[in-house]
Fold:
Amino acid sequence: MTSHNTRSHRQVRPIACLILMTMLVALPLQAAEMYKIGGIFSVTGPASFLGDPEKRSLEMAVASINAAGGIDGRLLEAVIYDTEGDPQKAVSGINKLINKDRVLAVIGPSTTPATLAVKSFAERARIPLISCAAGIAITDPVTPWTFKTAQNDVLAVAAIYGHMRRQGIGRIALLTVANAFGESGKQQLEKQAGAAGLQIVAVESFGDKDTDMTAQLTKIRSAGPDAIVCWGTNPGPAVVAKNVQQLEIKAPLYQSHGVASPKFIELAGAAAEGIYLPTGKILVADLLPADDPQKAVLGDYVRRYQEKFNLPVSGFGGYAYDAMQLLARAMVGTGGDRQQIRDNLENIQNHAGVSGVFSFSAQDHNGLGPEAFVMVRIEGGTWKLEK
Amino acid sequence: MQELLQYLFSGVTNGAIYAVIALGFSLLYNSTELINFAHGEFAMLGGLSLVTLWAGLGLPLPAALILAVGIGVGAGFLFERLAIRTVRRPDPIVLVIITVGASILLRGVAMILWGKDSHSVPFFSDHAPLAVMGARLLPQSLWILAIAAGLILALRAFFKHSLTGKAMEACAVNPKAARLIGIPTGRMNLLAFMLSTGTGAVAGVIIAPITMCSYDMGTMLGLKGFCAAMLGGLGSLWGALMGGFLLGILESAGVGLFSSGYKDAIAFILLLLILYLKPAGLLGAAKIQRF
Structure:
């Protein structure tokens, strides 16, 4: 027994020494006082059009904060996991961030279902979560640790209805895509119509892979609306635009912010002319008046993004960029205390970001107002700012 | 009346697409008793090839059309040689699973080559929509109908009047006997694959201007085409045609007369009903009649 013990002792000792030494060497490195920030984005998969620019924007924001000397002299490190658009993977991602990487706060996920899936984990671990998804259910009702930077459907609908009222439109028809995005839009469109003095005369839907919507539009045409609102993401709305032109429907067509990208104009071609849609200001950054509070931030973000990645900028990356900037602002002077970071976040007022001017409160964890959206009209293959 | 006509136009246009895809399913099933679940992906390949060749490289339209379909045929050739022929024990279930795998692979390759965004191409001819009794008909719909009809007549002539076509039919009816009388059954199978994927590419090419092309467009097209083929009776040329048009018209009538929310449901409920009442499909006789 004794001999056995000594032998194993003899074996263990060098190993223990080795471990101790590596720990001693690693310790100062570890304790280089890095602040770790987690990111969960759908970098690949069907929602990669969201996650990919978000990941790039987060990395860009972290690099620029570090280049400026970090926060209170401590550098940032971003740990990013890919959800592939799958809520299940988002959950395993946040568990790794909380338990293994021990991050201070989490930015993401990119989509509403993934955010709703991880929300309770962040709440339980008492870790600030700043989602980049648009769904209203993320911050309504407000929970202490969850924030979001993307504009709500509520605001987009308000922007559209405001524009319609100014145009003297009374009867509208809805044509929404049959998925979560379309359903959420439809709900808001129906909910706010009464207050805006609009009468909905037809409600139709289409599948997100449908290739022809003339049947729905024929039905809508016979209801005789003053305007048609289409709610979906590419390519469906481009087909709708083409079909509207084909059927020679004269009522103006409104699209959602879901197609607010040059891609839509490319897909719909000549049929895009005259379409109205709400968009974040990033699409029309150079058209904004000089006194717009976001003009400087937007110009800076667009220029740096294009320089760094040599890619056209989309509105989506801004969600992660804003989240990081807000977080950086909230982290100043906290020494990495999560409760303090959360409290500071909630108290941020008038922060001009890419997606809007944020003013958080205990009742509002999105912090944006209707002015986060502007209405644009497509003219000559480009956007024209509407009053 | 005007509305009904519009529903009919919309249904016929979609129906022609479903019919051409169903045709590809039937062609292959006829010769090899195999259902190719990657069939929709070959339509995607045709459509996206047209995007590159016509809109991207600026080739004249006829050349781009022929090349795009040629790419579909070539992909079918490679598919059969590399993935199907090399299987040591070709159980039907193994082969079907290989086609499912191929569909995932093709989608992935297309995503890398063409990106995740949708692409669009202009109409084949630049005419204003035609007004027929108050309803509007796109010139592209006429193109679709004409090309679909031409394809069907050509296939029919091939099977009825050419020696190769007759040899293919012989392989389908009795492969063993066909081999005994000296028909190279292996090469006939390859030909069936190429014909089938070629028709898939034709479907992709003709709808490209109407819908948008993206790497993931093939799944739904394949599913609808498969429904149409089952509806008409798998393996029957005329059944595929009928199934396609029936599905297209019912879908658009469903949207118009009931609600757009039930569009797919109406089509699929009908499919279930027909499979329940007449499992061989509308034109599928108990004794399978090939072409």
